[in-house]
## 1
Amino acid sequence: MSPSRGEFSSRFGFLMAASGSAVGLGNIWGFPTNTASNGGAAFLFTYLVLVFLLAYPALMAELIIGRHARANVVTALQGLSRDRSTYLLGTVVGFVGIITVSLILSFYAIVSGWMMAYLIDPLARIAGLQGMASWLTDDGWLRDSTFVILFMGLTVYVISAGVKEGIEKWASRLMPSLVLILLALIGYVVTLPGAGEGLRAYLVPDFGAVANPNLLINALGQAFFSLSLGAGTMLIYGSYVSKQESLPQLGSMVALLDVGIAFLAGLLILPAMYVAQASGVPIYNEAGGLIAGPGLILSVLPALFDSMGSVGLLVALAFFLLMTIASLTSSISMLEVPVAYAVENHGVERRKATLVVAVLISIVCLVIVGNFAVLFDLVVTVTTEWSQPLGGLFFCVFVAWIWNRDGLLREISQGYPEVEGSLFWRIWPVYVKFICPLAILMVYVQLLGLF
Ligand code: TRP
């Protein structure tokens, strides 16, 4: 372990970094439409229960392993092993985590690149550059590749500066700005005609929809993606937390911030969709569901902004700035996973490691851009539906089945000396040992169509 390993300088710094990782495209365009299409407040309620009963325990597993090992995911898992076979398992799970998070970054950077292009579009239009504006908003491999490289450049800029000067500094600036922009946009949009109907679609519960078995699976997948679980991201952030901090408390604050901002995003997106509908923009797809995903962000909302006249340019600017910030604080947390490994286990200098890893990931991005129809959904599905939950399962197995209970208790009691009599210590070990692995396995059984 290198003596110059970084550490977050304050609790606030960690909270901004970890919630920055958690709050991303998943919260702003995944969560609100998932909620509206799946029974409104009934889904919200199910989601909250899943986050606190299943995702929070898995998040704690990663944070605790990370802080204990003070090392990257591969070394951390190897360090918990008891014998040759668990050592081998740790090595494999660690590397699969690094590959998973790198692939997640490779599709995330493409989508984030779109956000940057749409951020520059209103500026181009204000400057009267119509040709450039349409290049920015029309699909094309040149635009996609250009913005992948620009976005990866920003990510490299932050990560090469290290934990304190890069991740912590930028997350502490960007996350408060994100919340302010989000609140300002909500304040504006809810005053427009049609907004009330959006709020109703979002918040009025339809308990019938919760009985749908796919809903639980959607909600669990959403929770795992949103909390950045199963790929070593939270593990590496945990490895930079001071031993004076209470991890159960920090973890619950991260989960609350993530859920809180997802909830706020719903207060923006759903009203915005129904305002768009009131001004003549279609918001339902052919199957009768709400338009979600790229169609929502890249066509429904821009059509709404266009219909607002010149205020629309400002609103578009604020909205895509929000999306770009959300993306960047997440992408840095992804890049940190392979970079920390290269620095710690191969002695590569941080700037160089960052650049080399980022170039490799960018190449993968460009391959995906060049073969979008074949590769994009495939990479998304394999990483988020398969590798991530499986990774989460193994982190739980390492904490609860391979690590000895005394070592585990000792680690948690650092910064939380009264843990032994706490509710957390009575409940959490049972969750990571039995309930989380079983719940994740059930998702697989369902995915494989076994029942
Ligand atoms: N949580 C982020 C979002 O909601 C995405 C993310 C960041 C992520 N780091 C991750 C997803 C690691 C999986 C693994 O957009």
## 2
Amino acid sequence: MYGEEEMERVEKEIKECRHCELCKTRNNPVVGEGSLSAKVMFVGEAPGYYEDLKGRPFVGKAGKVLDELLESVGLQRNEVYITNVLKCRPPGNRNPATAEIKACTPYLDAQLEIIKPEVIATLGNFSLSYIFDKFGLKKDKISKMHGKVFDVSTIASIKKIIPLYHPAVATYNPGMKEVLVEDFKMLFFTLAINTNTNQQQIIFL
Ligand code: URA
């Protein structure tokens, strides 16, 4: 499968990484998981307690919400790719520090290069902020941007970016689940439209 060797190399680098202090307190780094040919990549903030214990992304309470949201649009974990801005847990689940984001995001950049997702779904503010800055997009409040589709053209491809609330919001504010469900519908339609476009291109070729 394309990208396997490259992802293995990134995984090895993350496991051996000592670029910030988080390597001293982590139990396991969380590289990410899913399909290397995924059309959509979800980018969360950082591993939490359970993710750090298991070495897998989104396996705690927020992960349960994410699984339900994926299921609501007929997607399975093994069809998408899920990762985070930070690969190691900040102690006590504190916010990522600027220096940690700077040290860690070359790994996320490498994952984006390998997978080349058509759609990037940011989960929460830190992910939104990093991805929007990376692609030179203007940011606004998540309350204004969530569920909207932003186009970016890179030399290699055209991508769509969809900012989403972090699934954890639904664990302390159940009313937010409905907002996330609606935004996932937008994500699903965006993926469907992109797939149709590709099919048309294949037919014309
Ligand atoms: N929150 C995140 O942002 N990422 C995880 O992997 C788990 C919880």
